[in-house]
Amino acid sequence: MTIEEKHQVLLQINGLHKEYDGTTVLDDINLSIHKGEVVVILGPSGCGKSTLLRCMNGLEKIQGGEIVFSGKDLTDKNVDWQNTRQQIGMVFQNYDLFPHMTVMENVLLGPVKVQKRDKAESLEQAEQLLKRVGLFERKDAYPRQLSGGQKQRIAIVRALCMNPQIMLFDEVTAALDPEMVREVLDVMLGLAKQGMTMMIVTHEMGFAKAVADRIIFIDAGKICEIATPDEFFSNPTTERAKQFLNIFQY
Amino acid sequence: MLNSGINVIIEGVNMQRLLLGLAVTVRIAFISIILGSLLGILLGLIRTSKSKVITFICRVYLEVFRIIPILVWLFIVYFGVTNLLNIHLDGEIVALIIFSLWGAAEMSDIVRGALESLPKHQMESGLALGLSFWELYRYILIPQAVRRMLPGAINLSTRMVKTTSLVVMIGVIDVVKVGQQIIERSFTLLFVIRCPSGQKNWKLNGRIK
Questions:
Q1: DSSP assignment of chain B
Q2: Which residues of B fall within a CB distance of 8 Å from A98?
């Protein structure tokens, strides 16, 4: 990746405002994410972190502001969400694999049925990605035969197979047993090293520190602090962030 | 040997008459199960729509068929509607109409229930992959819903087969009527055609649990 590409803004959020039935959930969010950047969003429960991610691919409608992705305004009424979502990979907390399909069918649904790509080529890519997360042997298994960590790794592969420009991770390890968290985080760390642009919502502070280029701290629907991981964890500027970090220390 | 009466069935043309009666029962049941299911699936999909007006209309349709007994429905159409419009409808046609509409009403509720029981995040992860509305239903929601609605659908089918015996009341000679005419003991036959679907349902229930 050239320097120029690295500084190109992939996702620009200007004055985003989101409310549910009159209650403001996100207020005046301004953020730009560059190509290849890994942004970790931290904040207390219910502060709007997940909602922010869900706004990025249109699962939530926003009431104000604009989101510009790869030069396209996503608040435009005529925006082609199907096409846009193919470029924005998203992995959820509840490892939502489709239970009636095998691992391989889950992974190939996007490339073959949605993107209508060549089956042989997609298969090859899927196999490579599955090998990378160490689950190639399980390609014919059904989701119920897999552990939580395995399911989550498959969900990441499923999203990657669409060749997205950015990946959104919504608390992907929150529902996992502690010993399975690691295997999922390792996959994400590997992605970050390869230059994937990522927005991550997590409660794993150690991981946030290791993977992030920037930390965004959100509280009560507002961005409180934007800092590098080093600054944020050693020397947070806002009182709210200090309080938040204290909770994680016994 | 005691006379069990069973030999009455094979006496003369009795068997032939019974089979003709059975054909009427099977025909009404079969056609109305097929038509009812197709219409019911459509209505069930419509009932998951967000429009309150549409779901309300579908709901009223279902309740109307649930509350009013099928026998009354048969009378309303066979005697009432035909009289009102001054037309003649064959009893079997009336039965087909009523049983199809009833099947559709009940089926729509089974389909709706199955679709709504699917976790919401299944839909969201489909959307996040870029699936269109129809692709979402075709690849994700319907295949999963079908498994959940099979027991209910089979149960409904057996109920429909049983309820066809009401057509006697509007002058259709079905297997029960023939049986009555012969010895009033042809329940065995009705049992025989219901038995396989009932058993299938048991097996399915076991598998789903």
A1: ----SGGGTTSTTHHHHHHHHHHHHHHHHHHHHHHHHHHHHHHHHHHTSS-HHHHHHHHHHHHHHHHS-HHHHHHIIIIIIHHHHT----HHHHHHHHHHHHHHHHHHHHHHHHHHTS-HHHHHHHHHTT--HHHIIIIIIHHHHHHHHHHHHHHHHHHHHHHGGGGGGGT---HHHHHHHHTS-THHHHHHHHHHHHHHHHHHHHHH-
A2: 122, 125-126, 139-140, 144
